[in-house]
Amino acid sequence: MSKELKKRGKALEDQFFIARERQALAQLRAERQQQETKAALSNLTMVKKEEVLNDLVREGIDVETFAAIKLVPLVLVAWVDNVVQESEREAVLAAANKQGIGNGCAVYEMLNQWLQERPSAGLKSSWLDFMNEYVEHLSASEKKAWEEEILGSSQDVAEASGGWFFGFGAVSAAQQQLIDELHAVFI
């Protein structure tokens, strides 16, 4: 083999291993970031179950976007019939504004994304699992306040769609079933 060919082979080998090292380093950084995010969420919420925290992080929830947790049920109700109507979208955004979540913040952007593209199928189970753990750490009055806010706003979104009968305030059976499932978290 010529000297040039050996040199070229060595350079290619070095490039390969440099690329592998960069990839491994990026993966380590991502894992460390995920661990830090889960630790911060755990400190904020007092939820310690690793799988519950993993699910939240996988859904894009972190300390910065935690306020979205109260809006997840509204998004789920809006999507229950496989399409978000403009009136449902407006009801969800009105609830967000009522919470002080406005255009330009990370939660608002996440919410807009969820309203434009159906969130992952895992969002509902992630929310239910998290809330089942989280409500255990709330006082009775805090739990009641969360329940009233979440269920009241979910009902508003359901009523905004007009239900199956094109009547004002009518709620479809599927929407009511979902709201009942959400309510079970607080019982």
Q: Over the alpha carbons, how many angstroms does the gyration radius reach?
A: 23 Å
Strand fraction equals: under 5%
- Helix count? 8
* Gap from first CA to last CA: 77 Å
The helical percent reads 55-70%
Kindly state the number of beta strands. Answer: 0
Q: Unreliable stretches, pLDDT < 50, 5 or more residues? A: none
Q: Please write the string of helix (H) and strand (E) elements.
A: HHHHHHHH
Mean pLDDT: 89
Secondary-structure blueprint:
Blueprint: H1 3-45, H2 50-58, H3 72-79, H4 86-98, H5 106-116, H6 122-134, H7 140-160, H8 173-183
Q: In short, what is this structure?
A:
With 187 residues, the chain is an all-alpha fold. It has helices spanning 3-45, 50-58, 72-79, 86-98, 106-116, 122-134, 140-160, 173-183.
Which descriptors apply to this entry?
single chain, mainly alpha, 187 residues
Walkthrough of the structure:
- It is built from eight helices and no strands.
- The chain is mainly α and 187 residues long.
- It has one domain (50-186).
- The longest helix is centred in the first third of the chain and has 43 residues, at 3-45.
- The radius of gyration is 23 Å and the shape is elongated.
- The model has no long low-confidence stretch (mean pLDDT 89).
